[in-house]
Amino acid sequence: MIAVVIPSNRPDRFREWLNAWESIFKKHDVRVYLVEDAPVKTPGLNVWRHYCHEDIFSPYILESPFCKGSSAIRSYGFLAAYNDNCEIIISMDDDCLPVSDCDPINAYWYNFHSKHAVSEYFDIGHTFEMREYMRGFPFRDRLVAEPLIQYGGWDNVPDLDARTQLAYKGDILPRKFLRTHIVLPLGCAFTGCGMNVAFKREATPLMYQPIMGLDRVGYDRWDDIWSGLIAKKICDHLRYPIVINGFASVNHSRASDPQVNLTKEQGGYGYKNELWERLREIPLKGK
After folding, report:
1. How far does Cα 76 stand from its chain's mean position?
2. What is the rounded CA–CA span in Å between residue 89 and residue 144?
3. Which of 110, 143, 230, 270 has the highest local Cβ count within 10 Å?
């Protein structure tokens, strides 16, 4: 079973999202897990699982591992899909819609059953969709494994931080994500994002989105970025590849306000600059 987990606090936009994806989800028998960031459920949202604050937060637990008012609340949907024994869990946002030349469900499924090298080397040949290793790629590194995690691409509006978006004087020109597979080298940090990512069930603990919120930790919008770095550290240790899958691209319209985003992000910039360096120093053992 395949799950798509989506956090949302915009019922109208969620309905548009669900209508746009309906035919693709039916084709692949996808179950939608809506984590509504609201005190009570909006009626009439017909999905496989529908959660709200009443389901997630208990008055008897002072410090919940989940948080309100942040996309990190999607972690509850990950847990629910895990408990339902979903084989593959896909995370999306409600401002991500299908594009005509991509079927992300099929692209993720196919690539989870393909094997890729795990190496400190970046193989330029595979960016051209060649399935042979380029001259100079070490023979010792041609052992391969199936990925635990894949990150899809985004057409239209790239996933920019608030400072970068505000630096643009005019509108951001539409972009098209490269339709290719890129295997992330060992030891390499990357800018993962939770609005279009897929992972196997056993990777669910790695994909937990850390606590966010101005009122709780003093910053927001770093949950998926930092989760991706932690997952990369662990996948490197376990010798599982993480793949950027451009064939699983979506159309990203970006519904958030950059000025509001700047307020949310500001307190986390310093931590962001140091996080990968600190993670790199942590020794990991075991399986």
Report:
1. 14
2. 23
3. 230
